[in-house]
Write a structure and sequence with these properties.
Blueprint (H helix, E strand, L loop, with lengths): L17 E2 L9 E3 L23 H4 L5 H8 L4 E3 L2 H7 L7 E3 L1 H7 L4 E6 L10 H13 L4 E6 L3 H13 L2 E7 H6 L1 H9 L3 E5 L5 H9 L7 H12 L5 E3 L6 H7 L1 H13 L5 E5 L4 H17 L7 E7 L4 H4 L1 E6 L8 E6 L21 H8 L4 E5 L1 H15 L5 H20 L4 E6 L7 H8 L10 H9 L7
Parallel strand pairs: 5-15, 6-7, 6-9, 7-8, 10-11, 10-15, 11-14
Antiparallel strand pairs: 1-4, 2-3, 4-5, 12-13
Helix pairs in contact: 2-11, 3-5, 4-16, 5-6, 5-11, 6-8, 9-10, 11-13, 12-13, 16-17
């Protein structure tokens, strides 16, 4: 892609670039898409009985307040004031008009991005880490276990644990643990313990290592280890950074702010783009806009909602929509989702936060209903897009966010070919300051476009649980 510098002299003073809300304008409630779904979500099933799970089945892992949010169909759920007070440190997050990127691409499209890298942890993940830690502390919980891939979620929960005096133990996928040592250092700075997964601390980890001592790990394995430890102690719970309904709910503060900011700009998106691994940041930017569409009926503006995922772990574009476990050791309930199989291990590409075998049930359901689209790209194309963005807008995106950047650029180039002046919105979910080795590999030509093993995928899909239709 040829990069054309932005001509500063052509920019008028009235060409606003950033749109800011005051702290008083921060949303006071999360938006729950479950209230507006045209078809309800399939039930979560107990793996032993294949019957819908109840609150008591989830109680060993989550406090009751979060369980209630998980199953709620209320349209709006109040954000506790102590949580909003902490959010004020970085929220409302800015919305930017990417005028220099538009100029570089020569597109008639308007490109906006919501920037979540302004949080202390550098990503969107504190939007759910803070409320999860607060609800757990209110329930008397003293320790949280969790998993992390690239480390953004582990960093965020470690930050939240420090604020609320909760001990945090993070199981980080081995390949990311080795690739991103400074993420580990940040977690430890916040006071958390970070362990490479699979580990010898759990039965599930030891079983994996017995089969393959050099196993690169996966989010499914790390979840198994975190869940196993959490279930053993009454003062310990498990916290998840994506996938589940209550996590996606917490992230909708992103889209709620974006709606107000785009009104300030006098625009309304025709296309909304987000990267997808488990689905949290995608849900955060997309769900509030989908809600407007669903509530508006036939007269509502129809937007294209585009999920962009890695070609090396393409759950939405290649996975099967079926009931599956959320973890490799099969300790979790069964949820219906687009899955590559719970035993599937993705190759070790750099977007560690997108290396999950399944997609959030809510996002998967939307794909089945035809309300969203999905596409997949290899990592070199995504890094090329990220570099183009950085040289125009000045922000170096995280490898995960590069997928959203790539999706937005493709939409802008389509508008250029078609001569259409559409409004494109994407979520820049985090910065890449801890991912510079990946950029160095890209510039030196060492970054490989990794492909998953077709035979391993077939084997993983063949092992899906048998659930009667």
């Amino acid at each position: 892609m040829v990069f054309r510098p932005f001509h500063v002299g052509r920019c008028r003073v009235s060409d606003q670039i950033k749109f800011l809300l005051s702290e008083d304008q921060m949303p006071k409630a999360w938006y729950n898409l479950a209230a507006d779904l045209p078809v309800p979500l399939p039930a979560v099933l107990h793996p032993g009985t294949l019957q819908p799970v109840g609150p008591d089945d989830l109680a060993p892992l989550f406090p009751m307040a979060l369980i209630q949010q998980e199953v709620s169909t209320e349209r709006y759920i109040d954000i506790p004031e102590p949580v909003r007070q902490i959010f004020r440190q970085w929220r409302p997050a800015p919305l930017y008009r990417a005028r220099r990127l538009e100029e570089a691409l020569g597109t008639p499209a308007k490109i906006y991005y919501k920037y979540e890298g302004v949080s202390p942890a550098g990503s969107h993940k504190p939007n759910t880490a803070i409320p999860q830690a607060w609800f757990n502390r209110e329930a008397g919980i003293r320790k949280l276990t969790t998993e992390t891939g690239a480390g953004q979620w582990g960093t965020s929960l470690s930050f939240a644990g420090a604020l609320f005096g909760i001990e945090v133990q993070v199981f980080q996928v081995r390949v990311s643990y080795d690739q991103k040592p400074y993420r580990r250092a940040v977690m430890e700075t916040y006071g958390a313990q970070c362990v490479a997964s699979p580990s010898n601390l759990t039965q599930s980890g030891r079983a994996i290592l017995a089969q393959r001592p050099d196993h690169p790990g996966s989010l499914g394995i790390a979840i198994s280890e975190a869940v196993e430890l959490a279930a053993q102690r009454e003062d310990t719970k498990y916290a998840l950074g994506s996938v589940l309904n209550h996590v996606l709910l917490h992230q909708t503060i992103i889209g709620e702010e974006a709606i107000a900011q785009l009104e300030m700009a006098g625009d309304d998106p025709d296309v909304v783009v987000g990267c997808t691994g488990g689905g949290s940041n995608f849900a955060g930017i997309a769900f509030p806009f989908l809600g407007l569409q669903l509530r508006g009926g036939a007269s509502a503006k129809k937007r294209r909602i585009v999920a962009v995922e890695p070609a090396a772990c393409p759950s939405l574009t290649r996975g099967k929509y079926a009931y599956d476990f959320g973890d490799t050791a099969h300790l979790t309930p069964l949820t219906k989702m687009h899955t590559l199989g719970s035993t599937f291990t993705p190759p070790g590409f750099h977007a560690g936060g997108l290396r999950y075998h399944g997609m959030a049930p809510m996002v998967s359901h939307l794909k089945e209903l035809g309300l969203i689209e999905a596409t997949a790209y290899h990592q070199n194309a995504c890094f090329e897009a990220g570099v183009t963005f950085a040289r125009a807008e000045g922000i170096v995106p995280a490898p995960e966010a590069n997928h959203a950047v790539k999706g937005a650029i493709e939409e802008a180039l389509r508008c250029k070919r078609e001569g259409r002046s559409e409004v494109i919105l994407f979520n820049l979910c985090g910065h890449g300051h801890f991912d510079m080795q990946a950029y160095s590999d890209y510039f030196s030509g060492k970054l490989q476009d990794l492909n998953y093993d077709e035979s391993e995928l077939a084997m993983a899909l063949a092992g899906l649980p048998s659930v009667p239709a």
